[in-house]
DNA sequence: TTTATAACGCTTTTT
DNA sequence: GCGTTATAAA
C-alpha cells in the first residue's frame, strides 16, 4: 500500500476502512445516520481508481437525487481530480435517460422523446378517465395514476396485469383499458413518464441482451446509494446490469438483426461488482414503491455478499442519538443497530408545547433569535415539518419576527404554470408529437382559441392523418373564423421560426446559445410575455421574473453543455427535483419537510408538529407498515441534528380551515424522559401553574385564533392535573397525558354566560361546528369578541 | 369565448 | 384554506 493509498484511509475507523478496501462481487454497507457513508463511498471510488482496478468510465455510481450525485462527483474530484471525468455519477432516472436516448429507436421511440412529469401524466390520465367515464366506477385521476405508477414500479404493464386480474369485474376491465390507453398515449406523444424511464430500460435490457451486454461490459463497478429506497424496477435494473456478460446469448431475441451492435462471440465475463449503501431505518419512501426487502434480503440475492456495519456516528450528540435509538427501537422486525458517538452527551433535547401552531411558531422564532444572539448562523438552523401546509404558520411568524428563512421544495419552480407553459413551447418545438404540450400552449396567451377550435384542429388532424402540431400549419382549412385563423397561423409561424433556430434543418449544429435564444423568441413573439406584463394581477410580475430565471437556466445549461440541444435541456429540466437547489440558503433558516431533510444535517433542528395525526400522519394509520414508516421518518428528522434538537408541538391546530385538538405524538413517549428538557410540556399546558404563552403575551387581546384559543393554565374541572398522583415519572415518560384539557360535552347555547380564566365573563353570541370542534363565539364584557373551542377552552358555564 | 361567481373537495411524502 | 372546477352571465 503506497502513500496515496494510505491517505485515502486516514481518519477512517476500521469498519469504514473495510468498506473502502473490500474487493468482491457484492458489498452491502449498512450505514447508520451520520456514519460517514458518503465519505466511504467516495473513498471507495477513489481507491478503485487509484489502484488502477478500474478506469473512470467503468464506474457507475447511482444516487437518489441530482444533488447527491453532484456532491459525490465533487467530492470524488477533490480526491482524484481530472480522473473523475468519464464516470457516470447520476440518478437512476438520468442514467436511464442517457441509455434510452441511445437506444430509443430500438423500440418505437425517437431520440427526441420527452419526459412527462407527474403533472403531465396526471393530465393525460384525467382526460382518459373522463373519456372512459371512469368516475362511474369511482375512479379519480390521482387514484388511477398511483395504481399505474405502483404497477410500473413492479414492472407490470397493462397486458401482464390483465392476465392476473379479475377481468369479470367491470371496474378492473376499465382500469386495464385506461392503463393501456395511457401507455399508447405516451408512445404516441413520444414520451416516457418517470416510472417508464426505469421500467423501459429494464425491458430494453431483457429484450435485447446484446444491448444490455454493452453496458454490462462497460460498467464493471456499480455503486448504489440509498439502497433502501430502491423499488422493484430499480432493483431489477441493477440486477440486469450486474449479470455476467454474454449470459443472454441463447435468448431468442438476440437473433434476428434487431440490435445495433454486431453480435460477437463473447468469452463469458463475470458480472460487475456491486456496492450498495443503505440504512433500512431510513427507508421513508415505501409509499412510492421503495421495497425495504431489497436491502434486508441483499445477502440472499447476492450470495457471498460481504456486509459492513457502520454504527459510529460523527454527527450528533449522544443525547440526540439515544433519543433516536429509543424511538427506532420500537419498530419490530428490524436488525438491531445502535448509533453511538464518542463526542459526549451534549445539550438536552428541548421540548415545547404551544397553544396553537402560531404559539409554537412564535417559540421557534424567539428561540432562533436567542441562538442568533449567541452567534449561531441562521444557515445552521433548520425547521422540519411533516406536511407542506404546516409551513404557512411558521412563515407568518417568521416574517413578523424578521427571521430570514428559505423554504426548501415548496412550490416547485418547474411546476409553476408559467414555467410549464414555457417548457411546453420548447417541447412543441423539440417533440412535436407531444400533443399535450401543443394543446397546452394553444391558447396561452389568450388568442381566442377555445374548446371549439381545439376540437376542430384535432378532427382535422385525424382526418388528414397528420399530427395535431402539423394541423396548425393549415389554419385556413379548419373552417374557423378569419381572426382565429390568423391567430393559429401566427402561432405556427412562431413555432417554425424557433424550430429553425434551435434545430436547423440543414443538419448543422445549432450554436450553444440557441436554446436560450429560442426560448426568448418563443416567449416574446408568441405574445406570452406581453400578456403577463399587461396584466394587472400583481403575481404576473413575479411570473415574468420566473421566466427570466428560466432563460438564465438555459444560458447556464449552454455554458455547461456546449453541445447540448433543446432536447437535452428538456431532459435535464424534467429530472431536477427541488431537493436539488438547496444550496443557496446562506444566511437564512431552512424550512422543509422531513422527507426533504433526508441526507442533510444542521447544528440546530426544530422538529415541529410532533402530534398524533401529523407524525404519525393519520393517513398512514390505515396502511400496512404505515406507522413504522412514520417512525422511521421521525427518526430521520431527529438524526439530522448535530448539536441541538427541539421537539415542538401545539395543543390545537387549524387544518382545512377548522381548528381541532391535537394530541402529543406517541413518538414523544418513546423517548426516555431524562433526555428532554420541557420548557413547556403538554402537561403544563393544561395544569395550573404552567408557563405563560409568549404568543399571547406578545399580542394581547388580538382577535382570531391565536388569541382566542390561548389560555393560561386554569383549573380543570374534569380531573385537574392529568398525570395520576403517585405514579413515578418514569412510568409515564415525559408526563405526556393521554388527553389534553377536556370540558367533555359542555353544552353552550346562544345567550349563555361563561367565565374564561383569562378574559373574564362574557356572553355566547353563537355556537358553530360540531362534536369536538364546536366553537363558541363569545362577546366578553370588555367588548372583545373571541372564538373559543368549547372542548378545551378554560371556561366555565355560569 | 371569456369572465365572474359558487360550489366543491381535497388535503403526505417525490424521482 | 386552498385551488380547482362547474355553472351562469356578459
TrEMBL record:
SUPFAM superfamilies: P-loop containing nucleoside triphosphate hydrolases. Residues 318-599 form the UvrD-like helicase C-terminal domain. ATP binds at residues 31-38. It catalyses: Couples ATP hydrolysis with the unwinding of duplex DNA by translocating in the 3'-5' direction; ATP + H2O = ADP + phosphate + H(+). Residues 684-724 are annotated as: Disordered. InterPro entries: DExx_box_DNA_helicase_dom_sf, DNA_helicase_UvrD-like_C, DNA_helicase_UvrD/REP, P-loop_NTPase, UvrD-like_ATP-bd. Residues 10-317 form the UvrD-like helicase ATP-binding domain. It comes from the Bacteria. Residues 701-717 have a biased composition (Gly residues). GO terms for molecular function: helicase activity. Gene3D superfamilies: 1.10.10.160, P-loop containing nucleotide triphosphate hydrolases (3.40.50.300), PCRA, domain 4 (1.10.486.10). Keywords: ATP-binding, DNA-binding, Helicase, Hydrolase, Isomerase, Nucleotide-binding. It is an enzyme of class 5 (isomerase). Belongs to the helicase family. UvrD subfamily. This is DNA 3'-5' helicase. It comes from Microbacterium sediminicola.
Amino acid at each position: 500500500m503506497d502513500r496515496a493509498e494510505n491517505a485515502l484511509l486516514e481518519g477512517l475507523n476500521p469498519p469504514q476502512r473495510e468498506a473502502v478496501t473490500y474487493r468482491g462481487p457484492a458489498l452491502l454497507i449498512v450505514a447508520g445516520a451520520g456514519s460517514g457513508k458518503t465519505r466511504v463511498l467516495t473513498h471507495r471510488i477513489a481507491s478503485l481508481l487509484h489502484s488502477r482496478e478500474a478506469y473512470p468510465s467503468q464506474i457507475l455510481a447511482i444516487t437518489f437525487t441530482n444533488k447527491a450525485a453532484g456532491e459525490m462527483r465533487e467530492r470524488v474530484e477533490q480526491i482524484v481530480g481530472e480522473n473523475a471525468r468519464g464516470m457516470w455519477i447520476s440518478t437512476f432516472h438520468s442514467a436511464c435517460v442517457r441509455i434510452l436516448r441511445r437506444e430509443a429507436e430500438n423500440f418505437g421511440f425517437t431520440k427526441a422523446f420527452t419526459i412527462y412529469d407527474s403533472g403531465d401524466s396526471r393530465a393525460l390520465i384525467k382526460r382518459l378517465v373522463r373519456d372512459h367515464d371512469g368516475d362511474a366506477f369511482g375512479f379519480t385521476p390521482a387514484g388511477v395514476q398511483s395504481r399505474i405508477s405502483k404497477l410500473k414500479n413492479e414492472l407490470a404493464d397493462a397486458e401482464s396485469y390483465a392476465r392476473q386480474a379479475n377481468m369479470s369485474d367491470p371496474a378492473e376491465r376499465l382500469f386495464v383499458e385506461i392503463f393501456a390507453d395511457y401507455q399508447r398515449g405516451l408512445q404516441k406523444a413520444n414520451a416516457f413518464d418517470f416510472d417508464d424511464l426505469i421500467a423501459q430500460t429494464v425491458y430494453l435490457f431483457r429484450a435485447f441482451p446484446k444491448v444490455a451486454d454493452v453496458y454490462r461490459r462497460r460498467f464493471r463497478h456499480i455503486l448504489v446509494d440509498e439502497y433502501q429506497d430502491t423499488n422493484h424496477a430499480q432493483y431489477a435494473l441493477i440486477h440486469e446490469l450486474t449479470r455476467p456478460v454474454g449470459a443472454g446469448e441463447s435468448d431468442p431475441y438476440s437473433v434476428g438483426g434487431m440490435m445495433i451492435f454486431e453480435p460477437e462471440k463473447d468469452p463469458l465475463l463475470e458480472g460487475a461488482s456491486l456496492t450498495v449503501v443503505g440504512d433500512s431505518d431510513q427507508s421513508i419512501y415505501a409509499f412510492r414503491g421503495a421495497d425495504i426487502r431489497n436491502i434486508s434480503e441483499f445477502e440472499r440475492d447476492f450470495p457471498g455478499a460481504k456486509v459492513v456495519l457502520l454504527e459510529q456516528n460523527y454527527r450528533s450528540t449522544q443525547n440526540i442519538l439515544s433519543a433516536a435509538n429509543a424511538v427506532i427501537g420500537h419498530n419490530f422486525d428490524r436488525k438491531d443497530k445502535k448509533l453511538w458517538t464518542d463526542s459526549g452527551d451534549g445539550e438536552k433535547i428541548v421540548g415545547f408545547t404551544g397553544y396553537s401552531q402560531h404559539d409554537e411558531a412564535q417559540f421557534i422564532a424567539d428561540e432562533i433569535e436567542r441562538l442568533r444572539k449567541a452567534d449561531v448562523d441562521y444557515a445552521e438552523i433548520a425547521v422540519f415539518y411533516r406536511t407542506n401546509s404546516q409551513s404557512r404558520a411558521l412563515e407568518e411568524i417568521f416574517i413578523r419576527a424578521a427571521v430570514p428563512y428559505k423554504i426548501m421544495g415548496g412550490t416547485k419552480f418547474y411546476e409553476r404554470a408559467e414555467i410549464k407553459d414555457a417548457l411546453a413551447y420548447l417541447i412543441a418545438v423539440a417533440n412535436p408529437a407531444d400533443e399535450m404540450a401543443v394543446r397546452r400552449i394553444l391558447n396561452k396567451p389568450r388568442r381566442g382559441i377555445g374548446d371549439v377550435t381545439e376540437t376542430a384542429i384535432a378532427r382535422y388532424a385525424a382526418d388528414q392523418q397528420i399530427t395535431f402540431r402539423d394541423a396548425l400549419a393549415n389554419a385556413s382549412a379548419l373552417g374557423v373564423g378569419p381572426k382565429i385563423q390568423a391567430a393559429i397561423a401566427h402561432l405556427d409561424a412562431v413555432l417554425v421560426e424557433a424550430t429553425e433556430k434551435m434545430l436547423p434543418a440543414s443538419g448543422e449544429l445549432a450554436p450553444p446559445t440557441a436554446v436560450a435564444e429560442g426560448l426568448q423568441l418563443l416567449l416574446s413573439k408568441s405574445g406570452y410575455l406581453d400578456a403577463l406584463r399587461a396584466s394587472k394581477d400583481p403575481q404576473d410580475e413575479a411570473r415574468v421574473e420566473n421566466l427570466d430565471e428560466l432563460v438564465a437556466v438555459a444560458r447556464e445549461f449552454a455554458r455547461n453543455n456546449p453541445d447540448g440541444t433543446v432536447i437535452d435541456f428538456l431532459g435535464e429540466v424534467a429530472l431536477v427535483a427541488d431537493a436539488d437547489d438547496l444550496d443557496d440558503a446562506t444566511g437564512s433558516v431552512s424550512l422543509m419537510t422531513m422527507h426533504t431533510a433526508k441526507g442533510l444535517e444542521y447544528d440546530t433542528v426544530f422538529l415541529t408538529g410532533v402530534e398524533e395525526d401529523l407524525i404519525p400522519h393519520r393517513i398512514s394509520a390505515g396502511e400496512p407498515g404505515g406507522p413504522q414508516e412514520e417512525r422511521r421518518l421521525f427518526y430521520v428528522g431527529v438524526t439530522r441534528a448535530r448539536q441541538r434538537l427541539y421537539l415542538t408541538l401545539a395543543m390545537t391546530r387549524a387544518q382545512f380551515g377548522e381548528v381541532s385538538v391535537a394530541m402529543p405524538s406517541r413518538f414523544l413517549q418513546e423517548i426516555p424522559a431524562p433526555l428532554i428538557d420541557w420548557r413547556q410540556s403538554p402537561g403544563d399546558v393544561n395544569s395550573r401553574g404552567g408557563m405563560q404563552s409568549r404568543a399571547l403575551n406578545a399580542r394581547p387581546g388580538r382577535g382570531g385564533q391565536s388569541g382566542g384559543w390561548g389560555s393560561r393554565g386554569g383549573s380543570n374541572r374534569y380531573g385537574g392535573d392529568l398525570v395520576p398522583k403517585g405514579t413515578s415519572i418514569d412510568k409515564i415518560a415525559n408526563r405526556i397525558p393521554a388527553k389534553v384539557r377536556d370540558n367533555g360535552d359542555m353544552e353552550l347555547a346562544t345567550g349563555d354566560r361563561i367565565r374564561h380564566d383569562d378574559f373574564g365573563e362574557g356572553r355566547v353570541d353563537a355556537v358553530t361546528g360540531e362534536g369536538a370542534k364546536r366553537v363558541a363565539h363569545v362577546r366578553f364584557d370588555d367588548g372583545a369578541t373571541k372564538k373559543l373551542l368549547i372542548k378545551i377552552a378554560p371556561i366555565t358555564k355560569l
